[in-house]
Amino acid sequence: GTTLLSLRDRVLAGEVTVGALPTSATDLETIAGVQIVADGRLTVSGPLVIGQAGRAGFGLFGGQLTTGETRLGVGGVGTFNTLSGGQWSSGGLLVGEAYPGYVNLGGGVSVQSTAVRIGGAPFSPTFDPGALESDAGAFSRVTLRGTGSDEDGNPTDGSSWSVSEELEVGSGHPGRLQITDGGSAQVGGSVLVDNVATAASAGSRVLV
User: Fold this and answer.
1) pLDDT tens digits, 47-78
2) Half-sphere exposure of residue 61: CA atoms within 13 angstroms, side-chain side
3) What's the Cα-to-Cα distance from 7 to each of 35, 36, 37, 85, 124, rounded to whole Å?
4) How confident is the model at residue 194 (pLDDT cuts 50, 70, 90)?
5) How many CB atoms are closer than 10 A to CB 123?
């Protein structure tokens, strides 16, 4: 089943790991999760790791999240979702290390990060793409949607993402960045696609 921690107040932490315990590759029901709701605030001075050894998810549904760095898909599939606004400020962002990482940004969220890698390392030999849900591909992905609504169903401003340094898509395994419905992304450094052109990483995409 799902183990879920909801944050509604202000929390300070040095490091946060979600999905620290391993789960079976064929177990699609067990997942560890953390969510920030309403005016909750989570400040992590060090790393936020989502999917350290097992499947894990993080939800930002309003409120604020600040992290020294963020890593998804280290030893299990990691997912990050936003729905109704909120602010997320991260240092380096790695979406997909030895396992896939999925980041879905919508609902008018505002995101700032430094260097970003999507598909940043070769897949683990133990990763089985066939164990993923049918709508998930064997790649890591960031989706940025412009339109959204708040908790009362009112339209929100478009979601935005500012990357102050380089953005790499597919430096270790296939990665995708998809921007839809008026989402906005600004990159201060270079944008590199399939920067390490191997059989494992070729096929990455940036879709606008």
Assistant:
1) 999 999 999 999 999 999 999 999 999 999 99
2) 13
3) 6, 5, 6, 16, 32
4) confident
5) 23
Does 187 score more than 60 pLDDT? Answer: yes
The Cα 62–Cα 49 span in angstroms is: 20
Residue 87's pLDDT band (boundaries 50, 70, 90)? very high
CB-CB neighbours of 147 under 10 Å: 16
- The whole-angstrom separation of Cα 42 and Cα 162 is 20
Single pTM value for the model: 0.90
Token readout for 153 is 């169903």
At residue 112, the pLDDT reads 98
Exposure of 89 in the CB half-sphere (CA atoms within 13 A): 8
Residues 6+ apart with CB under 8 A from 69: 46, 47, 48, 90, 91, 92, 93, 94
Quick one: which of 182, 63, 187 has its CA closest to 117? 187
* For range 144-172, the mean pLDDT: 83
**Residue indicated by tokens 């494992």:** 200
For every residue of 133-159, DSSP letters joined together read -TT--SSEEEEEES--B-TTS-B-PPP
With vertex at residue 191, the alpha carbon angle to CA 185 and CA 194, rounded to the nearest 5 degrees, is 125
